[in-house]
Every structure is written in C-alpha cells, then in structure tokens.
Amino acid sequence: MSGAAKPLRLGVLLSGRGSNFQAIARSIGEGRLTGVEIAVAVSNVEGAAGLAAAQEMGLPTVLHVSKGRPRAEHDEAMIATLRAHAVDLVCLAGYMRLLSPGFIAAFRNRIVNIHPSLLPAFPGLDAQTQAFEYGVKVAGCTVHFVDEHLDHGAIILQRTVPVLDTDDAHALAERILVEEHKAYSEALARVASGEYEIRGRRYVKRAQ
C-alpha cells in the first residue's frame, strides 16, 4: 500500500506585507488548498511585515537583506536557503526585486508569480494605475510561471475585474487584490496536481 503523496513544499519570497502569502497560508490552514505546505518564508527587506506574520504563524523564516549586495551573490544565498528547506516551488508574493538568471536556472519552471493585470497588458510597476489611466473596461490579475523576462512566463490562470465608472486607481487595486488572494491559491492547486504541461507559452491541463 502506497502512502499519501508528499506535499509540494513552497518557498515564499516577499518584500512587504505579504498579503498574498497570508492568503495562501489561510487557504492551507482552512483546508481549501491541499497537497502543499509552506516550507519557508524569505524576505530581502529587514522589518518586512510579511516576515513578522510568518513568524507569528510559527513558520520558518529567513532574512537575506539585498540592499547594497550584488544581485548574483544575494541570489546565491537565497538559492542555498531554499534548497536547505527542500523547496519544490518558489512563490513570489510581493517580492520587489528582479531575479538573476542564475536563480531562474536553479528553479526552472518552478517559480510562480502573481501580477495585478491581465498580462501581457501592463507589465511592471503600478499595473493597476496603468490600467486605470489607459481607460480599460476590464482589469484583473495573472498567475504565471517566471522566466528571464519581466512578467512574461507561461500563464497558469487569470481572473477578471470590471472597471467601474465610479472607480479610481486605488479602488480598482483593492478589488483586484481580492481576486489575487483567490487566484494564487487556485493556481497553486493546479500546479500541485501535476496534471498539466507547458506547450510553447500555453499552460494546458492534461486530459483525464
């Protein structure tokens, strides 16, 4: 008789409050996201609220301050930490630093990110403001695999948010964030299932 499948071990990278990280942790704790566990939370910013939240949850935490440190050297330390905690999948949750090619190569097709726009529209910073100022009628968020290019890897899923006539950029961002908290856990469940393949740029669920 075979035992239960080993949970997918997540390494969460964050720079700020880590609201998406906390949403993932709630989903796991409440049994809505199964087959995964948070192995470690890592921050590049001293005093990051998300790291404090992880400590309160009793999760392993590590701080690698990036300011003033060469990117490749910093990322080597991050890689070593993630490997020491046997991380299977790296989740970026408000991690405000570009990853080096060496980091991406170390976790090829095993890094996921969430971006507050419907990619490929509005990559980069302040995506919600970009969308609002452009005048789009539908905005949203995207969970995608990370590659060497900014906000570019294969898309796992997207959730849409209507842009209301009464919106401003802040109100739109808050509504998108609500959908982010749902989308990230749903995307992790899809990845944890292993029932997919990447065809070119497309995430495709395998037929049962």
Characteristic terms for this protein:
alpha/beta; seven-stranded mixed sheet; 25% strand; 2 domains; two-stranded antiparallel ribbon; Rossmann fold; 208 residues; 9 strands; 35% helix; 6 helices
Question: Can you describe what's shown?
Answer:
The protein has six helices and nine strands, in the order E-H-E-H-E-H-E-H-E-H-E-E-H-E-E. The protein has 208 residues and is of the alpha/beta class. Strands 3-2-1-4-5-6-7 form a seven-stranded mixed sheet, sandwiched between helices. It has a two-stranded antiparallel ribbon with strand order 8-9. Helix 1 links the parallel strand 1 and strand 2. The chain is globular. The mean pLDDT is 94.
Average pLDDT: 94
pLDDT < 50 runs, ≥5 residues: none
CATH C-level category of the largest domain:
Alpha Beta
Helix content: 25-40%
- Derived from helix and strand composition plus strand pairing, the structural class reads alpha/beta
CATH homologous superfamily grouping of the largest domain = Formyl transferase, N-terminal domain
Evaluate the radius of gyration: 17 Å
Count of helical stretches: 6
What CATH architecture of the largest domain would you give?
3-Layer(aba) Sandwich
Strand content: 15-25%
